[in-house]
Amino acid sequence: MKKLTVHEADILASKFRTQIGLNPNDPINIKTLLRKLQITTMYRPLSENSYGISCKSNTGKMFMLISSNSTRGRQHFTIAHELYHLYFDKNPAPHMCGLVSTTEEKNADMFASSLLLPKEGVYAMISNEEILKHKINLATILRIEQMFQVSRHMLLIRLKNIGIIAEKEFNELHDIPVLESAREYGYDSSLYKSGNKGLFIGDFGEKARILFESGRISEGHYMELLNMISDEREEN
Ligand SMILES: [Zn+2]
Fold first, then answer.
1. What separation in Å is there between the alpha carbon of 85 and the centre of ligand 1?
2. Three-state DSSP class for 153?
3. Cα–Cα distance between 162 and 94 in angstroms, integer?
4. Residue 204: its pLDDT value, please?
5. 95 alpha carbon to ligand 1 midpoint, in Å?
6. What's the rounded Cα separation, in Å, for the pair 31 and 222?
7. How close is the Cα of 105 to the center of ligand 1, in Å?
8. Would you place residue 232 in the very low, low, confident or very high pLDDT band (cuts 50, 70, 90)?
9. Coil, strand or helix: which one is 71?
């Protein structure tokens, strides 16, 4: 597989948005999207540098495991990265997505970035003055990352890739402490923190309930199944 250019990733992401009925430039609510695409998703603590894994069954059922140790912004990126594996990867072999940099991993990252941060949507949030001066205000950075629910790191990489900032601005902005800056500008900090431990997205609970109600499993077994998906539920 060849390495995707930014432009190619933008085209794939834009086509994917159309295919699944999303507007071209709007922020994505990732959990709503997982429900819509019927991807069974579990959030569990994974080891450091392991962000997620996905697979597809022979019958086309899709599954994701996302690290609840990552920040929520990072989780959104991982889910978009896994969407690439599920929808575009020609040889999808389940693997833990982390720091390994194969071409397919880079392509999945590139796609994730294009999908979560559509170019036109990002442009619309940057003033003409900022574009002309090649300098983006921190307030704008915060507004964009909060709007599109992505990590600072990912936003800055995207801004560099689409030519809004150069290496120097990238480094300067990257040095600014993320949590502190969000607090100073009055934003909720949950985007920059880990979360969703034990969250389950899918119809597993519903299926367990049907089995229990029809008498095919005992109450004990039903409770056991429910406990598997509810150690610490949190919605966001
Ligand atoms: Zn991957």
1. 7
2. helix
3. 31
4. 75
5. 7
6. 25
7. 5
8. very low
9. strand
DSSP lists the bridge partners of residue 62 as 39, 56
Task: Give the Cα separation of 76 and 193 in Å (integer).
Answer: 12
Question: Can you give the pLDDT at residue 229?
Answer: 65
Residue 91 has pLDDT above 50, yes or no: yes
| 206-to-210, 223, 226 alpha-carbon distances in Å | 6, 12, 10
Distance CA 66, CA 74 (A): 10
Angstrom distance (rounded) from CA 89 to CA 33 = 19
pTM of the model: 0.89
**Measured between alpha carbons, how far is 122 from 195 in angstroms, rounded to an integer?**
26
C-alpha 27 to ligand 1 mean position (Å): 22
Among the residue ranges 38-47, 92-101, 102-111, the one predicted with the least confidence is 92-101
In angstroms, the CA 195 to CA 212 distance is 31
Measured N-to-C along each axis, helices 72-87 and 103-116 cross at an angle, to the nearest 10 degrees, of: 120
* Residues 6+ away with beta carbon under 8 Å from 87: 16
**Separation of CA 103 and ligand 1 centre (Å):** 10
Q: What share of the chain is helix, strand, coil (3-state, %, to 5)?
A: 50, 10, 40
Q: Which two tokens stand for residue 79?
A: 């889910």
100 Cα–ligand 1 center, Å: 8
**Bridge partners of residue 54, in order along the sequence:** 64
User: Is residue 96 classed exposed, middle or buried when 0-12, 13-18 and 19+ CB atoms within 10 A define those classes?
Assistant: middle
